[in-house]
Specification:
The protein is α+β, with helices and mostly antiparallel strands. Helix content is about 25%, strand content about 30%. It contains five helices and twelve strands. Helix 1 packs antiparallel against helix 2.
Length: about 230
């Protein structure tokens, strides 16, 4: 493919915010890395009531960020192998965690998640929740990374999508997503691009805490721009 016909990488404005909130400990982790071939964005929420939740969430995020070394494009195979590698790191930490993962490469997008951290996309003013919580009952979850019970699976749900300039992607732990409804999240995101992604991430967390969230609160916002 000639230089004139190559697809140019898209630019991203990225912002992240995480707060302990009313909890006495912080078990959320967030991270992103914009790579040459694949850009990776992740949030994780260590399981409360289990040991080493903070270590597990950090291990999951640190592991998936290594995906930026991969050669594109973003694919389901790459997402599944990334989550499988993260599972090994989480098991070594001695804890358990959720994981929400977004991979972007050109106009390709892949979403993967385990448990109840979520991924959303705002396009043309419409907010879509792209993940469904792994919940058998309201407070009973049957998937996580670092599972030691045979009744709990680490298998991710994976979706292959697309992305285009103007899209806004959001990754959030349940401290934010269980507190803010779609309308509240959409209201913040529709302030973009007049404001930046960092403001949006911080505003989502602030509003969740103001609305009474008692959990750790984490959000990561990615605003997709034009070609670099």
């Amino acid at each position: 493919m000639s230089a004139a016909t190559q697809v140019q990488p898209l630019a991203y404005d990225v912002g992240a915010c995480t707060e302990r909130g009313l909890r006495s400990y912080q078990e959320d982790a967030v991270g992103h890395d914009v790579g040459v071939n694949v850009s990776v964005f992740a949030v994780a929420d260590g399981l409360g009531g289990h040991p080493n939740g903070d270590l597990a969430s950090r291990a999951a995020v640190d592991s998936v960020l290594l995906t930026t070394q991969a050669e594109g494009p973003a694919t389901e195979v790459l997402a599944r192998s990334t989550v499988a590698t993260a599972e090994v790191s989480v098991l070594a930490s001695g804890g358990s965690t959720t994981l929400a993962l977004l991979m972007l490469a050109g106009t390709s997008a892949v979403v993967a998640h385990v448990r109840d951290s979520r991924v959303y996309r705002l396009r043309y003013g419409i907010l879509d929740q792209l993940t469904q919580d792994h919940r058998e009952y309201r407070h009973v979850l049957n998937r996580c990374l670092g599972a030691t019970s045979p009744d709990c699976s680490s298998e991710p749900d994976v979706r292959v999508l697309d992305t285009e300039p103007g899209d806004v992607w959001v990754l959030a732990t349940d401290g934010v997503s269980d507190t803010l409804g779609h309308a509240q999240i959409r209201a913040v995101l529709r302030e973009l691009p007049a404001r930046n992604a960092r403001w949006a991430a911080e505003e989502l967390v602030r509003r969740a805490l103001d609305e009474g969230s008692t959990d750790n609160c984490t959000s990561l916002v990615v605003l997709v721009g034009g070609a670099r």
